[in-house]
Amino acid sequence: MDRLRETVDLLGRLVAFPTVSSDSNLEMIVFLADALSSAGARVEMQQDASGTKANLWATIGPDAPGGILLSGHSDVVPVTDQAWTTDPFAMVERDGRLFGRGTCDMKGFIAAAVAMAPDFAQAATRRPVHFAFTHDEEVGCLGAQALAPLLRGREALPSVAIIGEPTLMQVIEGHKGCYEYSVHFTGLEGHGSAPDRGVNAVEYAVRYVARLLELREALKARAPASNRFDPPWTTINTGALQGGVAHNVIPGRARIDWEMRPVQAGDADFVKDSLRELCAHDLLPAMRATSPAADIVTEVVGEVDGLIPMDTNAARDLMLALTGADEAGTVPFGTEAGIFQALGMDAVICGPGSIAQAHKPDEYLSLDQLGRCLDMLGHLTQRLG
Asked: Are 113 and 72 in contact (CB under 8 A)?
């Protein structure tokens, strides 16, 4: 069996694990641990507090610094209410494409990296290859953030990190951060005929969203002149506003889910300071004038820093050499790359498939893209001896 067919078969097995972020990824992590152990890797598993999620860290080659990290997340987004034409967790090959949830984002890269493990084991006589497969990237990079303290301070830390998110195998050296929040409003329920006797949590949530819209416009003027991102400013998106039970009931609770993607740390501080001032000096005094128990609580879902483009970046230079590309670019979507960069690694993003296919019904990865990823990893083996 050739390496591409072997990788396709492995990808089909990975897709069959329904590792939606809300569910467990343990079976897939155990499967990957067994596969890497069989190839000679030294394997560590790190479970979360619930015992239902785990990260996998594995190493092939010498216990030495300066290795290369291949990183991917094991979780996928939900398929609920999506109009799939096939079973999303039973991969289907058709017209040169592999259909299934996670084929593109990003089990294709994981399958390619694991399929190449026996080759790495033969080639890594001087420079080790590490694997990091994490949980809950789609909901705040929780797995990678838990893995970082475990790695920090290790003498044999990799010097280069390759994060295999779908980029059509283009080399990406920068992306914005991703900060996600849920804001919970507690008001006072009452009859809709007497709105002054209650505290309408939905209406105060709407006022909060109005400030988010104002800040979204203000951020456009703060874009750094040399910014390479598209769009070049920090963005804000209101993902959901929930609250209320009936037309004639004053809603006592509401929730806003929102995110921002900072291009610079000062923008995040600007937004958060403005919202704190709004709540402390405007919304909460008005709410508590009617109900002293009224409150606004901000839940930090995740604050993941971006990947900062650097003048000196060994990971970028390596990937340009391995892929034959002339230059590296930037993307607006977030990844775990900034977490590894903060650990002192040079980081880059490059993986098979298009982000345009991610998170959609009938997600797919082309055989051509998977083959190009395997070619890149094959060239990598020549750098390990």
From this structure: yes
Burial of 210 (0-12, 13-18, 19+ CB in 10 A): exposed
Active site residues: 75, 137
What is the Rg, in whole angstroms, of the alpha carbon atoms belonging to the chain?
23
Among 285, 149, 262, CA closest to 216 = 262
In terms of Cβ atoms closer than 10 Å to its own Cβ (0-12, 13-18, 19+), residue 96 is exposed
- Residues 20-60 have pLDDT tens digits of 999 999 999 999 999 999 999 999 999 999 999 999 999 99
Residues 80-107 have pLDDT tens digits of: 999 999 999 999 999 999 999 999 999 9
On whether the CB atoms of residues 222 and 274 are closer than 8 A, the answer is no
Domains located in the chain, CATH noted: 3-175+306-381 (3.40.630.10), 178-304 (3.30.70.360)
